[in-house]
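Hi C.,

You asked whether I'd gotten around to modeling the 282-residue construct. I have! Everything is below, sequence then structure, no commentary in between.
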Amino acid sequence: MNNLTKFLITFIPVKKWRTAIRYFERNSKFEFFDIVEQHLVSEENVKVNGDIVSVFGINFKKQKNLTGLIECFFRRDYEFGGVKDFVFIDVGANIGDSALYTASNPNCKKVFSYEPFFNTYKTALTNINLNPDLKEKINIFNFGWGGEEHQLEVECFEDSYFNTLNSANNFPIQAKIHTNKTKTIVNLKKSSDELKKILSLFPDSNIVLKIDIEGGEYECIQDLDNSGLLKYINVIFLEWHYKGYKEFSEIFAKNNFVWFHSKPISPEFGSLTAVNKNRTTL
């Protein structure tokens, strides 16, 4: 954040104006990779070679949408220990950053990734293929999870470096800023059906579930609760959007999870980590 922005958000009295200023700065016309480099430049294990950036030995195609590198490698949002021989379910794969980061964990047996936006899915495939030592661990699918199997029409904002972020649930500020909205159809499959498939393949493995799907998390968790499958999951990393987290806290408590709430990123979204106190095996 530059000094002018800091000055403005300190003295402007109206909260929605301050929020808009932050948002405009984040969406200004610059290479977002520059921000990633600023965050990671002090790390010895970051190398840039032309269009490829290698972070701790994991390769990514250089592009604007690299927010996940900060989440995974700088903030380490999905770093955890003490879970042996686990399967990682990555719902909302984005560009494949969390899938590759977790696949590099020697305790990870398999990664199942789901990304419904086709262009983002193609980017994830490119990044996965840049890492031949990890790609065999990762299965990625061009559909998302939902409460039921259906197609969903959503709006995308192609001029934002966030790419499809917040596309499924339009941010009021974002809808006003971007003029090149396009609509696309994404395919969603029933969450409980997909989890059953994975459990049948890995009945004795621990299960770690990550969900970051811009508002669709409510119907996914509700479906897993209704189907009685939450008890088979060891750890859940969940980002909530717009409706708050109370609904999840009640479901997690009912299913024998303890949960931890990180500092909300904004009033509109934040994250939870839930750990099963007594995970059931098949």
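If it helps when you're writing up: The CA atoms of residues 5 and 239 lie 27 Å apart.

Thanks,
B.
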